[in-house]
Structure formats: C-alpha cells, structure tokens
Amino acid sequence: MEHQSRHFQDELDELKGRLLEMGGLAEERLRMAVRSLVDRETALMDRVLAGDAAINHLHIEIDDRCFKLLALHQPMAVDLRSIVAAVKINSDLERVGDLAVNIAEAVRRYLQDPPVKELIDIPKMAELAQAMLRDSLDAFVRRDVPLAQGVLAQDDELDALKTKVFRDLLTHMLRDASTIEPALHLILISRHLERIGDHATNIAEDVIFMVSARDVRHQ
Amino acid sequence: MEHQSRHFQDELDELKGRLLEMGGLAEERLRMAVRSLVDRETALMDRVLAGDAAINHLHIEIDDRCFKLLALHQPMAVDLRSIVAAVKINSDLERVGDLAVNIAEAVRRYLQDPPVKELIDIPKMAELAQAMLRDSLDAFVRRDVPLAQGVLAQDDELDALKTKVFRDLLTHMLRDASTIEPALHLILISRHLERIGDHATNIAEDVIFMVSARDVRHQ
C-alpha cells in the first residue's frame, strides 16, 4: 500500500523474517524427532523433549510485533490481511513445534521394543510435511498464490501416505502380537505428521486469502 | 474503551454472539458424532459426515466481521486484542467442526466390527471436551480469567483419560486379536477428542492474554 510509510514496510519485512526463522526452527525440530526414530538415537530425541526456548521466545515476540503493527500503523487491505495472517501462522508454527515434541514422546515409547519394520513411509511423510511447511512460508513471504496452491495438493499426498502406513502396520499387528504396541506408536507418529501437514495447509489457505481476499476454505 | 463508539461495542457484541453460535454448532456436531458411536447409530453419523454448511458460512462471516472491525474502527488495547482473539477462536472452532467429521469417519470404520467393550471413558472425554469448549467461549464473552484458567486445569484431566483409554484398549488388543482394528479406531477417536481439548485450551489462553495482556503460554 503506497500510503503506508517506509517504516511500516521495514517492520513488515522484519516480521516476515522472524516467521521464517520460527518456521526453520520448527522444521529442524521435526527433522530431529524423525531422525531419532529412524536412527534409534535417544540423544537426539532427548534434545527435542527438552523443549525449545527459542521457539517459545519467538512465538511471543512475533505476536507482540503484530499487535504493535496493528495498533501503531492501522494498516488496511493486503497489509491488514498480512498481519492477521502472521498472527495465525505464528500459532500454527508453535503447534508444529509442540507436535515435534509429541513425536519425540512417541519415539521414546517406540524405542522400548525391537523395530517393527524398516521405516520408509514415515520418513517420506516427514519430508513431505517439511516441504509443505517451507513452501507455505515462502508463499507467505513472496505472496505467491500458485506456491500456496501447491501445498494444498501435497496435503492429499500426505493423506494417502497416512492411509498406507495405517494399513501396513495393521497387517503387522494382526500377524505378530509382539508388534502391537510399537506399531501403535508408529501409527500415532504418522498422525502427528498428518497434523503438521494440516498446519501447513492452514498457512497456505491464509496466504491465498491474504493475497486475493478470496476465501478458498469452503469450496 | 470509552473512546470507541457505541456502534463499535454493538458490533463487538454481535461478533461475540456469532462466535457463541459457532461454538454451539461445533459442540452439537461433536455430541452427534459421539452419540453415533455409543448408540451405533449410523443415521446420526451420516449427518455429521455430510458436513455443515452453517459452520462454514459462519467461519467466513466471522472472519469478515473481524477484518471490518479492524479496518473501520482501528481499535486499541483490549478491543484490539479481543478482535485478534476472535480471529483465532474462529479458526479453532472451525477445526473442532472438522474433528467432529474425523470422529464420525472413525466411527464408520469402528461400526464394521462388533463392539470391543462398553464405552465409558470415551463418552467422558467427549463430555469434558464439550465443557471445556463451552467454558472457554463463555470466558471469552465475559472476559472471565478464572473461568479460562479452569479450562487449562480440565485439559490435564482430559490427558489422563486419554492415557487410560490407550492402556485399556492396548490390553484388549493383546488379549484378543479380533479387537485390534476396532480398538485402533477407538484410540484414534480418543486422540481427536484430545485435540478438541487442545483447541479449547488455545481459546482459554487467548482469553487470558486478551484480558490481561499477559502471556501464559510458555511458563
């Protein structure tokens, strides 16, 4: 918006930088949680379980920046939508961080038994969820609607993998009762990954609304 | 805020009314989904699966009201925080509606097998999640911090029930392989209920921040 000051645009850029930083931290923690699962690496798992003060700090700082921008600059149109989107994206990223902890908790339980199987689809789900997070945040920063739409398409892929993981693990559980409990933990991990994809999808929908003021959420 | 117009306060009250309405619809759909499980009542389940145009419509209308209030009235302090909270609560309630659909989908799968056991803790979880939703929304409307804090305490109770459900069903699965698949669906239902509690918790945290400008989220 031309009527907004240079100062406002600098602040908005700063805010976007902070959201990217938070997204990077959340993604890193997700990667650590899933690597601790695949490599059966408890030290990595413990780092995730210890929590992340940096994410918590950024969560509060970003909210604070958004409120200041709303109160001091009284933005309109796309600028207003961007800041409200930033508040929502901030919540989504914080919950992704929480989900990384949930995954690490399930990993801790999973590692108490021998491996159920070689893990292929769960790491695939994690990579896809990470790509969706990255793309949705890039779409926010660049106001890139086609990139955001790509995230919505990737979510269908993630859902299909989740269904496959469920079927595969159910087969193991029915064949060998000793796999019941560890396979259950893997299924719960796949659900946490699905939820991370849901958060990326929420971000992508917010981006589309922010850019076009067009609501794609109930079509 | 005294400097805000009468008109603004009327609009804010209208917004709160809409959020209560949406909360009521989401709660009703949750109740239907869980009753369809307990009574093995597919007609009720189908109603949830058919989606809810009223919730989707309200979701868009509430967002729209929030943006208009921000753009036209440029509210400050607690009024600004209330409207930003309303945007976030609106998202939370929409996801509660989606979770009712997820529960109904799991009910559909669960009903394909004979009952695993008499259901006691899952209906308890549902009642608790409903109470948390109601309380968190009442706390928003009345700016009632102690009520919001009560919701945070109830969430611990919900978590304890979730753990109990997991242990009980795992025992059934280990004892009788024919219960593995249906018990899995019950565990997933309990996780959806836990997430509904998480949304009520988010709302309660937003209310505490709205009233006191004090962030209780990372303590």
Describe the structure.
The structure is a homodimer of 219-residue chains. Chain A is mainly alpha-helical and 219 residues long. Chain A has a single domain (6-212), classed as Phosphate transport system protein phou homolog 2, domain 2 (Methane Monooxygenase Hydroxylase, Chain G, domain 1, Up-down Bundle), CATH 1.20.58. Helix content of chain A is 83%, strand content 0%. The first copy, chain A, is elongated, with a radius of gyration of 19 Å. The model of chain A has no long low-confidence stretch (mean pLDDT 95). The A-B interface holds A 56-57, 59-60, 63, 66-67, 70-71, 74, 76-77, 80-81, 84, 87-88, 91, 94, 170, 173-174, 177, 180-181, 184, 187-188, 191, 195, 202, 215, 217-218 and B 56-57, 59-60, 63, 66-67, 70-71, 74, 76-77, 80-81, 84, 87-88, 91, 94, 170, 173-174, 177, 180-181, 184, 187-188, 191, 195, 202, 215, 217-218.
Give me the secondary-structure topology:
The structure is a homodimer of 219-residue chains.
Chain A: H1 6-38, H2 42-49, H3 53-73, H4 77-110, H5 121-142, H6 145-175, H7 180-212
Helix pairs in contact in A: 1-2, 1-3, 1-4, 1-5, 2-4, 3-4, 4-7, 5-6, 5-7, 6-7
Q: Which blocks of ≥5 consecutive residues of chain A have pLDDT under 50?
A: none
The biggest beta sheet of chain A is recorded as:
none
Structural class of chain A: mainly alpha
The average pLDDT value of chain A, as a whole number, equals 95
Termini separation of chain A: 29 Å
Q: In CATH terms, what is the architecture of chain A?
A: Up-down Bundle
What string, H for helix and E for strand, traces the elements of chain A in order? HHHHHHH
Number of domains of chain A: 1
Let me know the CATH homologous superfamily of chain A.
Answer: Phosphate transport system protein phou homolog 2, domain 2
Quote the CATH topology of chain A: Methane Monooxygenase Hydroxylase, Chain G, domain 1
Strand segment count of chain A: 0
**Regarding quaternary structure, how should these chains be classified?**
homodimer
How large a portion of the residues of chain A is in β-strands, by DSSP E?
A: under 5%
Largest interface between protein chains, with number of residues from each side: A-B, 34 and 34 residues
Number of helices of chain A: 7
